[in-house]
Amino acid sequence: MTSSAGLKLSASGTRRNEALHPDSPPVQHAPAGDCMTHRRYAVLMFAVLAAALAAATLAAICLGAYRLTPTEVWAALFAKPHLDADPALQQARLVLLHLRLPRITLALLVGAGFGAAGSAMQALFRNPLADPGLVGISIVFGSLLSPLLGSLSGFASLSLLPMAAFIGALGVSALVYRIAAARGQLALPLLLLAGIAINALTGAAIGLLTYIANDAQLSSLTFWSLGSLGGAQWHQIAAILPCVMLGIGLIARHSQALNALQLGEAEAQHLGVPVPTVKRQVLAASALSIGALVSCTGVIGFISLVAPHCVRLACGPDQRIVMPGAMLLGATLTVTADLAARTVAVPTEVPLGVLTALLGAPFFLLLLWRSRSQLGL
Fold first, then answer.
1. pLDDT at residue 116 above 90?
2. Displacement of CA 249 from its chain's centroid (Å)
3. What is the CB-side half-sphere exposure of residue 178 using CA atoms within 13 A?
4. Least reliable range by pLDDT among 54-68, 78-92, 190-204, 350-364
5. CA 255 to each of CA 15, 98, 118, 289, 324: distance values in angstroms, whole numbers, following the listed order
6. Beta bridge partners of 182
7. R_g of the chain computed on alpha carbons
């Protein structure tokens, strides 16, 4: 009796709504079975990405110029009473704690931070091509500021470096956004063109510094322009960790608002989303996270483009799924690429930025090819 009464009440409410709004389309509700299937698919995707990240991390810990087995890793990290008696365990512990683990931790931070920022930018601008690097944020002037601040010593340099990169990133993103926005609307072509112009200006400044730099400064500039995790140290990670985590947290806080913004700015405002505030905070959070990371690693491109787009293709545009999925996939890609960078040409090392560009540039060209239909080509 209760269910039949509920059906009658629902039907009468629907007819009343159609009578009051004859031109409005009928309200359609997604079947509960489809929602459950989508949720299970998302859980399965998270499990697969977590397993892939765990496997990539274990491989990165064990493989390299100094190879270790999982048993040796366990013994070096936890069998402390035997270290004094076994020089091999002492050497393995030294390699793990001072070289390999800091590098892997920084790779995890880079992948997670870039994945979160990339998913936010693509949702904010409603376009899969809106990568932070393409709107001028990834360069951040961090490649320019880091060598200049590198002469400082002590904790002051470690604390100033991420903040200087964040200020540069925030200034660049604000300038690009101001150029592309007019009357509350954002013109994506202007946004991309402004980002390209800012990147070209930064590249010219780096070229000028390269021309006037001495040998030591030239080596530092080359490091920043190519991108690498080879200089990872625990005190650097401690300095940038609060910036990265704060940026990711601010982006995650606006997941629902970013979902609404994908419907359009007017629709999001009708749903009660403070669109200008969300835009400013998401841009600032992305600049904070990526600026801190680039200040330590140099320019590493395309992770923030590839990771969120692949997750969106697999599970749809829901930012509550895309963002954590992009963080997991971005971390997996970064750890795997860094492993290849330090093992493919032992004893030398291939710059990480070169490998990510080799991966991301063809992917970006494929996106452009698929986007031709939107332009009527």
1. yes
2. 13
3. 7
4. 78-92
5. 35, 37, 13, 16, 11
6. 185
7. 24
Structural tokens at position 352:
């990480």
* Tokens found for residue 307: 């990771």
Alpha helices in the chain (DSSP H): 2-20, 32-62, 70-78, 87-95, 101-125, 142-149, 155-180, 188-212, 215-226, 234-253, 255-261, 265-270, 275-297, 303-315, 319-343, 352-370
Residue 189: how many other CB atoms lie within 10 Å: 8
* SS3 assignment, position 132: coil
- By residue count, the chain amounts to 377
- Rounded Cα distance between 53 and 42, Å, is 16
CA–CA distance, 323 with 123 (Å, rounded to integer): 10
Give the tens place of pLDDT for each residue, 6-36. Answer: 433 334 444 434 333 344 344 344 455 556 6
Segment (H or E) for 213? none
Residue 206: half-sphere exposure toward Cβ, Cα within 13 Å: 26
Instruction: Extract the tokens encoding 4.
Output: 């039949």
Q: Are strands 185-186 and 181-182 parallel, antiparallel or unpaired?
A: antiparallel
Percent of the chain, pLDDT > 90?
23
